[in-house]
Amino acid sequence: GAVVSQHPSWVICKSGTSVKIECRSLDFQATTMFWYRQFPKQSLMLMATSNEGSKATYEQGVEKDKFLINHASLTLSTLTVTSAHPEDSSFYICSARRDRAGRDTQYFGPGTRLTVL
Amino acid sequence: AQKVTQAQTEISVVEKEDVTLDCVYETRDTTYYLFWYKQPPSGELVFLIRRNSFDEQNEISGRYSWNFQKSTSSFNFTITASQVVDSAVYFCALSEDFGNEKLTFGTGTRLTIIP
Questions:
Q1: Which of A36, A53, B37, B111 lies in disulfide reach of A44, CB 3.0 to 4.6 Å?
Q2: Option in A34, A104, A110 nearest B43 (CB)
Q3: Do B43 and A49 touch (CB under 8 A)?
Q4: Residue B44: which of A42, A45, A108 has the nearest Cβ?
Q5: Which residues of chain B have a CB within 8 Å of the CB of A34?
Q6: Which pLDDT value is given to residue A40?
Q7: How far apart are CA A11 and CA A7, in angstroms?
Q8: What is the arithmetic mean of pLDDT over B44-55?
Q9: Which of A56, A59, A50 is nearest to A106 (CA)?
Q10: CA distances from B74 to A92, A98, A106, B30 (A)
């Protein structure tokens, strides 16, 4: 089956620093990737849609200048949390859409747990 | 706007009992997709099923079965003969856009199977 990886799996950083999270589709090309955020014991909320070669599309209420998304290749999307603060602590999950004629399927990464001190 | 409601926040059942997780959705589209995912304590989402709005046939996969009722906008999930390994948070999700698959998730149901 298709595999999506995330790196790092967890990260602890100081308030004010920036953190980059990578999402890779390992055995397929993904023109579209998604970034979700999940607070403890809550649901997943879509943050943005990442499109290869173009600007990401952010959901309402998500600050694009704080959560920088770059989808530079068909297998890699990165999410950078800039000037992180404790309220940004969360579980960040990416997914990659595998394009198949009439049968698009979305595969999720294992998630990255961010803790901002 | 689309919405997914999972009214059951937490459920506990004794091992070997059957359990049904409810999911009710709202959408304006006539074409949409419904999903169920399992999230064990490790956090990784495990895909269970995807169903399109034109296919109302119920589906069974081993101990899992799904009941899709368009008339009541429900897509319920039943686990028969539950096992401890079934303990997890289960999410129902909806996608309106064919080929896009932006997912709207429900709030999840935490299922605990008591040995």
A1: A36
A2: A110
A3: no
A4: A108
A5: 101-103
A6: 85
A7: 9
A8: 89
A9: A50
A10: 28, 27, 22, 15
